Amino acid sequence: MAVVETRDLTKVFKEGQLGAVNNVNLQTREGEFLVFLGPSGSGKTTLLRMIAGLEAPTSGEILIGGQVVNDLSPRERRIAMVFQSYALYPHLSVYKNIAFPLKAQNVKKELHKEKVEWAASLLGIGALLDRKPRELSGGERQRVALARAIVREPAVFLLDEPLSNLDAKLRASAREELERFHRRVGTTTIYVTHDQLEAMAMGDRVMVLNKGVVRQLGTPTDVYDNPADTFVATFLGSPPMNLAELGDVIVGFRPEHFRPAPTVTDAAVPFRFKVENIEYLGSEWIVSGMPVGGKLEGKKIFSRLSSAQNLHLGGTYDFAVPQFHLKFFDRTSEKRVEPRAVSWQ
Amino acid sequence: MAQGISRRIWGKVVHVLVLATFTILLAFPFYWMLITSFKQNLDL
Amino acid sequence: MAVDRAKIKSIGAPQSPLLGAAMFSPAVLYILLLVGGPFFLAIFYAFSDARIGNVEMHFVGLENFRSILQSPSFRVAIRNSFIFTICSQIVVIVGANILAISLEKTFRGRGIIRFLILLPWVAPIALGAIGWKWILDSIYSVITWVLVAVHIYKPFSAPMWLGEPQLAIASVLLVHSWRLMPFSTVILLAGRTAIPKDIPEAAAVDGAGFWRTQLQIVIPMMRPIISVAVLFGLIFTFTDMTVVYILTAGGPFDSTQTLPSLAFALGIQGSDLAAGAAISLFLVPLLVIIAYFMLRVAHRAEVN
């Protein structure tokens, strides 16, 4: 188990252009589940690959367990990686797939069986050892990939969007299995995803990236309730935080805090809200529309409600946002600032 | 730092050598034919 | 509802079996006339005493086969056919793999290199063979010239590359390998680029070094492609008479004869058409076996 650290890590693919990864500084904690979260092209996968040793950094240092590993090959770094496509060896059986890292590291052949069976039982795939990858379902393949990663008892796990190839229903259960797996094994894990839900559910800490720059590093609570800038604020949460420009600040509030006025008891900002679209998702309702009057007139606002029985399309209702749920961001830098007084009319 | 660089340089050298060997072996007869069709019985 | 479904079904099906047959017939005719015709004629000749220039021809049963099997040059020819084919294939597969590895990554000048490397295959066989004949010629060989210049051999005492039986065999092998190398390299390169990039990366992360990755992961994954390259290579080498004919004409003392070159020597040059035909027929069994394996590889590829 080790701590992964990067110092001013940068990767530039084309000279003169902005790097894929720019001056990233991070330090994992022992045994934590750290999520790299960001949209496509944010540099999260490049960052992961540099830590793995598959991509050489342009500048900066990578440390694993306190040792600078920039010049070490992947095999020497004691890391294990699960790829998005799982990268199982198609011509080898599941057993041989899992045993391959042992073979490659010249582990004695007598020990192979014991270790493979241990890894397989951890992931519940003991019955599949004789099959070939093409005979397995997506979920089974993912577990084989994990078994292959764990069998070497690495210091760090690197996971590159391992759930994105699974269909939605399977994703939820696979996610839960991964969480349980991590609790059981306890290895420091770095997990890359673009799905903010996964990041919130699984991460001990979340590192939000955009265009190769770290926007915020913190616990799920931190990034959700105290976003460092507008990017983080809108990336986490679905539907995203409602943002509006007022004076020299940008004010934001989350859809779940924008509710019909009668339900709001604290000091709140009132709105006259015209409903334009209602989506019933089963467990909740997503209502979108526009304020009538005031500075926010004509701006699309989302609301998330557990019940919208009394709302009708085209109707105008009294809505409100509690004051303490408002977030303020500087208009130019888009970074979070202290709350201040704004006029809504 | 040094270990990484020397490994990379060595890899490149081998790469160039291999390519050069194969290219010469495969293309040489044509080069030779081209050359000798312009010469008479000079050397050889 | 059922009527609509029936209508839709009939649109996809052929209008009539006759039309299908009519579309097929040009191809069938072509194969029957241009491939089947000479083939069956050869079989017919093999059982006769046909000669070039003779008008008449008699049936002689197995006489041709009997005399061929007794002739020593025939036995050498069979041996050589197999040796040349198998040995050159081994050289080519190993060499082409190495070359394919070298050509995978882009680098400056890759286009020119690829062009130069393709030359042995795209140039006419005769051209390449003639070129090598000059390089290996006993008097004018440039190899000899170089070896003499570095004092490995004294002038005029260098070995005769095409004149001594062992060296001649090696030379023919060399030229066959040389000609086939680009072909196999192109096929293997295509096979390599078809391997998803993250598999060798996974192997690297798992701890495999360069050789282990190549030998235990990449090459086994290329098995169908390698099969195709090998099978084609076997056919091209086994049925080739040009290289032998130009380089050594089967000599010295018939030591480099192969089945096709012997068939040509006896049948066309020696005018004994029947003997030539009979020798050529011995090519058929091996080619049938190779054809079977090719169909099997193709079938497997379709299934997967």
Please give the structural blueprint.
The complex is a heterotrimer of chains A (345), B (44) and C (304).
Chain A: E1 4-11, E2 21-27, E3 33-37, H1 44-52, E4 59-64, E5 67-68, E6 79-82, H2 94-104, H3 109-122, H4 138-150, E7 156-160, H5 168-185, E8 188-193, H6 196-202, E9 205-210, E10 213-218, H7 220-225, H8 230-235, E11 242-246, E12 249-253, E13 259-260, E14 268-280, E15 285-291, E16 301-305, E17 316-322, E18 327-330, E19 336-337
Parallel strand pairs in A: 3-8, 3-9, 6-7, 7-8
Antiparallel strand pairs in A: 1-2, 1-4, 4-5, 9-10, 11-12, 12-18, 13-17, 14-15, 14-17, 15-16, 18-19
Helix pairs in contact in A: 2-3, 2-4, 3-4
Chain B: H1 2-38
Chain C: H1 2-12, H2 17-46, H3 63-70, H4 72-104, H5 110-122, H6 125-136, H7 142-149, H8 165-193, H9 198-206, H10 210-221, H11 223-238, H12 242-247, H13 259-269, H14 273-281, H15 283-303
General description of the model:
The complex is a heterotrimer of chains A (about 350), B (about 45) and C (about 300). Chain A is α+β, with helices and mostly antiparallel strands. Chain A has 8 helices and 19 strands. Chain A has helices at about 45-50, 95-105, 110-120, 140-150, 170-185, 195-200, 220-225, 230-235, and strands at about 5-10, 20-25, 35, 60-65, 65-70, 80, 155-160, 190-195, 205-210, 215-220, 240-245, 250-255, 260, 270-280, 285-290, 300-305, 315-320, 325-330, 335. In chain A, the strands form 4 sheets. Chain A has a 6-stranded mixed sheet with strand order 6-7-8-3-9-10, with helices on both faces. With about 45 residues, chain B is mostly helical. Helices cover about 85% and strands about 0% of the residues of chain B. Chain B has one helix at about 1-40. Chain B is rod-shaped. Chain C has about 300 residues and is an all-alpha fold. Chain C has 15 helices and no strands. In chain C, helix 4 (about 70-105) runs antiparallel to helix 11 (about 225-240) and helix 8 (about 165-195) runs antiparallel to helix 11 (about 225-240). The relative contact order of chain C is 0.12. The model of chain C has no long low-confidence stretch (mean pLDDT about 85). Classes of the chains: A alpha+beta (about 350), B mainly alpha (about 45), C mainly alpha (about 300).
